[in-house]
Amino acid sequence: MSRSSRRYKPLQVNHGGGPISGCDRIRMPRARVLIFCLIAVLMLAVILGICLSYETSGDHSNRLPAVDLAKDRLSHKPVKTSPSQLRRLAAQVDGTRLWEMHLRPILIERLPGTQGSLAVRKHITSTLSSLSAGWTVDLDPFQAPTPRGPVTFTNLVATLDPSTPRRLLLCCHYDSKALPPDARAPEKVFLGATDSAVPCAMMLELASALDGLLGALKQQRPAVTLQLVFFDGEESFEEWTAADSLYGSRHLSEWMARTPHPPGSTHTTLLQAVDLFVLLDLLGAPDPLIANHFDNTARWFDRLIAAEKRLHRQGLLTSHPAEQMYFKKDVYLGPVQDDHIPFLHKGVPILHVIATPFPAFWHTLDDTEDNLHRPTVENLTRILAVFVAEYLGL
Ligand SMILES: [Zn+2]
C-alpha cells in the first residue's frame, strides 16, 4: 500500500446509533432534510481537506530534504579568505597547545576496550567540553566479535550543532594497533604517533583554534555544521581482513544509514547529511605526499592545494621551502583501505588526507614522538584550518 494509506485514519462517520433511513426522511420536512444534507457534505469536505493538507505537508517534510540535501551539497561554495583572514587563521593555530595539551595525552597504548582507550576518550571529551562553542559529544559503544574474542569498542562523535541539516565531517581513528612486543625491548609498546594520534590532536587543535569562529557560526544557524568523528577499532587484531578491521567505522556507518535525518524523515538519513567526509590518517612524519583519491571530491582537494600555496606565499608555513610540498594531484599510489571504506560504499563523498607512501616506520614500534616532524604537523593544521574556515564560511 502507499504511504498515504498508513497516514489516513479510515473516515468514520457516526450516525448516532443507526442509519438515516427512509422513515427518518419521511418524518422530516423537505427543507430540513436539504439543510441536513448540505451540512453533512460540508463537514465531509472539511474533513477531506484536512486529511489532504496533512498528507501534502508530510510530503514536504519528508521528501524535499532528500532532494535539497544532495542538491545543496553539490552546489555548496566555499568562501575565499582574504589575506588578513588567512594570517589570522594561521596565527590561531597554536603549535605548543597542539603538542603539549592535545597530542601528549594521546601518546599512550589505546587498544579498544582498555583503560588507555578510556583515558584518550576522556581527554577528547574534556578538551571539547572546555571550549566555548558548545560541542555535543556522543559516545557510540558496541561489542563486536574479533579474532581475540568479543571486544567493546566506542566511537566518539562531536557535533557543533546537531539540529543543522548538513555536516562537514573531520574523522580519524584513536585506537592503536596491537603489535607483538620486541624481544630486545619488551617494555616498548606501539604508540601510533602518526597512526593516528597526530590526526586526533590536529582535530582537537582545529576545534580550539576555530573556537570563537565556530561559536559565532552556530549563532547564525547555518545549513552546514562541523562534526568530529573519532573512530575506535580501525586497526585489525590479526591479518587485515574485511571482518577484522574498521570495526568502528562499519558500525557508525550502519547506524547513520538507519537513523532518519532530519528527525522523523522517511527518506533521508544521517548519511545523506554528510556533505564531505574528510579522513585524516598517517600524518606527522616529515615530507608527506598527499594525493587525490577521488574524482568526485577533486574540487575540495584543489582547496587544500590552494590553501597550502596561499599560506606559503604569505610566509605562514615553517620548514616549507616550496609553495606546493604536500598536496599533489599528479601522483597516485593506489587506493588505501581505511575508515572511509564503509562510508564510500554507501555513497558518501570522501576526501582522504593520508600520506602515501606511508611513513617509513608505519606499524612499527618506532612510530613515536621522536620521529614526528613538528613543523609539518603545524603546517598541515594551518592548511586544514583554512580549509574548514572556507568550507563553513567562518
Ligand atoms: Zn595503522
From TrEMBL:
It is an enzyme of class 2 (transferase). The chain crosses the membrane at residues 33-55. Keywords: Acyltransferase, Membrane, Transferase, Transmembrane, Transmembrane helix. Residues 155-387 form the Peptidase M28 domain. Its EC number is 2.3.2.5. GO terms for cellular component: extracellular region. GO terms for molecular function: glutaminyl-peptide cyclotransferase activity; zinc ion binding. It catalyses: N-terminal L-glutaminyl-[peptide] = N-terminal 5-oxo-L-prolyl-[peptide] + NH4(+). Belongs to the glutaminyl-peptide cyclotransferase family. PANTHER family: GLUTAMINYL-PEPTIDE CYCLOTRANSFERASE, GLUTAMINYL-PEPTIDE CYCLOTRANSFERASE-LIKE PROTEIN. This is glutaminyl-peptide cyclotransferase. It comes from Gadus morhua.
